[in-house]
Amino acid sequence: MQNDSWIATFETYAEKVMKEAHLPGVAVGLAKDGQVIYEKGFGYRDVENQLKVTRDTVFAIGSITKTFTCIALMQLQEKGKLSLHEPIKKYLPKFHLKNGEYADQMTIHHFMTHTSGIPDLQTFPMVLYESLTEDDFTYDPTIQGNNEAFQPIQTYEEYLDYIAQLDFALLGKPGEQWHYNNDCYGLLGAIIEQVSGQKYEKYVQEQILEPAGMKRTSFFLDDFYDEDVTKIYVSREENGKKAVVPSPNWWDTPVQRASGFLKSTISDMLKFTELFRTSGKVGVERILTNDSVKQMTAVHIWRNPIIGQGYGYGLSIVPDYHGTKLVEHAGGIKGGGAQMYIMAEKGLTGIVLTNVLSTTPTVIMNGAFNCMENRSPEASHVTYESKSVGKKDLLQYVGTYQSESMKVTLSVEFKENQLQAYVLDSPIGLKPIHKDTFLLEGTMDCIQFNRNAQDQVVEMDYKGLKFRKEK
Fold it and tell me: Is the pTM of this model over 0.85?
């Protein structure tokens, strides 16, 4: 950290990752004790016109928006306008589940920690309907289907009515298990509106973005008056080969903006990370109390105990990241990938933004922090015994896996004497760390394979979702 000798190693690594993942553009920002120590744009915000990425290029930040939503809820709790441990129904009386005997017990806390027990409800085609094109219905794995079969959901009232009529089983009692859920965060936006008396977007603008000095952050593209806004790109198969092509339509939805629809820059997001480095302040402005930050960054449930990863309020927590507590969150949406890191004990913060959906922001962010601290770019914080798994044993995991709740497919191949998964079209090596458990190299995630009574691999768990192995 005393010199910049790490930069050349990191940039070589980042360019290698970009090339392998076919990334059009990447922005990386790092800070130490609130001072920017590295900002760089790699590649292009507009490939076709050869316009480069800058520190002020606007990208989608995806689910890092959830962190902003939780900050809003903590502020409202500080003002005595709500309590995180009160039922959802107190604030949304129309919240009802057809087969949900535990609906009355679900609290704001459960929604914030992804522990409500509500599974994926496949609402994307409805809530995004107005911003979807025929291309989305044809190619996107989360939107597959005939657009004529779906009705748009444009208001919170329509959202609640739709959820109430769905016939599904809960995954368990509230608080029992972690399962990522965008719908719950969409409804948290409704609670913020109900309690504050303001539109969700207006509240975030006035209570978080403006005090933090985040002038190039918004839910709305029309708020950016210059051309330094990235195009968004998607992966397509063309003549049997992968191609990354521009897409004209950014996704948007009024009822799920609280789950993942903010746009921002590395410059603005480095300001935002200060809130967690300084226990609630950005510059001279206090956004949250120290106690609220402690609540947000505490482990309320273990989302991935094998690799030591918990979840707080809109934040993932790794208590031992190379000996230091790491607070982080990733984001992913059509045309955008993001990763945010905060290591308050060391005064380090970082942000990576890309203009295509992939897992690579985490890989690049890990690489940056590893290089800064003189580790190999690929180094993992996960400690495990070096396992030697033979080809015969590895081959039992090879196959195509289909999500139970979404039209999402993951494939696992055997290549160069190891397993390799394709996640969001990006190849990622799998390193065995436990029986039937593999770390996705360079990320914070692992895959757990499950077996049947005959000891055959039939399923995988990834990011709280179950994927069935196809015959």
Answer: yes
